[in-house]
Amino acid sequence: MSGQISYDSVQAGTQIPAVSYPVTRLSLIKYCGASGDFNVIHWNERIARAVGLPDVIAHGMFTMAQAGRLVTDWAGPAAVVTEFGVRFSSMVVVPDTDTGAFIEVSGQVEEKLEGNRVAIALTARAAGTKVLTRARAVVRLPGAPQA
Amino acid sequence: MAINREYAGRVFPASQPYEVSRVKIAEFAAAIGDANPVYLDPAAARAAGHADVIAPPTFAIVISMAGSGAALADPGLGLNYAMVVHGEQRFEYTRPIMAGDVVTAQVTLTDIRDAGRNVMLTTSTEIRTAAGEHVCTAVSTIVERGA
């Protein structure tokens, strides 16, 4: 976990280093239970294949949550997310292996906005493919560095 | 079965009040693998300026799905959920969702449109407190893949 970022300390172009987040079948089972989204394509390989998917796929919202995690871990505990949007451009296929798959997320401050807010452009890839496009979050930061 | 286009524009009844608990936030944070103390520890959340533990940004989907899930499961709509993948998701927050909130989700099925062999459905869900305070608007586009 990083410390607290302040609005004054970031510029357009500030990079948020990439983090690789693991996702296994167990992750998806837990996400089904916690989210209430029990769509069978997220836990049943037989039905996933029967409906034309390559294998079980992750919930889009699980991937979005990892992108959000990159932002909130970078921005610090006092930061508040005011907008967050993504387009799911490709599926995250999660094979039945011990390691599952990885979602690699990175970001960059796109612009500084009024009200101590910054817009962050996010990139997320799995198995070399972009899984999110138009991924953007706006966070409100403390103005000056905190003592 | 085909999607019933007459559902476009339909405003669904507000969901039953949803009581946000510290335990549910912690369960959701664990499911996305996020151990941020502001989601888990009331003292850490207060130290960061929040009134209680806050929820991860994408937790809003749990509440919005409590409303939109019922709307999309309406047999009259004719959606085949196993063929559904998430296309796009956007959240706009007035403030973070936090433990102790009692909120409702009001869903509008704003748009049904064709995209090749697929059908795209967009819902806009307003999450408000019992007192009417706006907390979050969630806009979801889901895709029913063509056979």
Plain-language structure description:
The complex is a heterodimer of chains A (147) and B (147). Chain A has 3 helices and 5 strands, in the order βαααββββ. Chain A has helices at residues 25-35, 45-50, 60-75; strands at residues 15-23, 80-88, 101-113, 117-126, 129-140. A 5-stranded antiparallel β-sheet of chain A has the order 1-3-4-5-2. The longest helix of chain A has 16 residues, at 60-75. Chain A is elongated, with a radius of gyration of 17 Å. By secondary structure, chain B is of the alpha+beta class. Chain B has a domain at 8-19 and 57-144: Thiol Ester Dehydrase, Chain A, CATH 3.10.129.10. Chain B has helices spanning 22-31, 37-40, 42-47, 60-72; strands spanning 18-19, 84-93, 102-115, 118-129, 134-144. Chain B has a 5-stranded antiparallel β-sheet. In chain B, a hairpin with a 4-residue loop joins strand 4 and strand 5. Chain B is elongated, with a radius of gyration of 17 Å. Chain B starts with 17 loop residues before the first strand and ends with a strand. The chains are: A alpha+beta (147), B alpha+beta (147). The interface between A and B is large, with 44 and 41 residues. Strand 2 of chain A pairs antiparallel with strand 2 (84-93) of chain B, so a sheet runs across the interface.
CATH superfamily of the domain at 8-19 and 57-144 in chain B: Hotdog Thioesterase
Structural class call of chain B reads alpha+beta
The assigned structural class of chain A equals alpha+beta
Strand content of chain A: 35-45%
The secondary-structure element order of chain A is: EHHHEEEE
**Radius of gyration of chain A, taken over Cα atoms and rounded to an integer in Å:** 17 Å
Largest sheet of chain B: 5 strands, antiparallel
Put simply, the count of helices of chain A is: 3
Average pLDDT across residues of chain A?
A: 95
Proportion of helical residues of chain A: 10-25%
What profile does the largest beta sheet of chain A have?
A: 5 strands, antiparallel
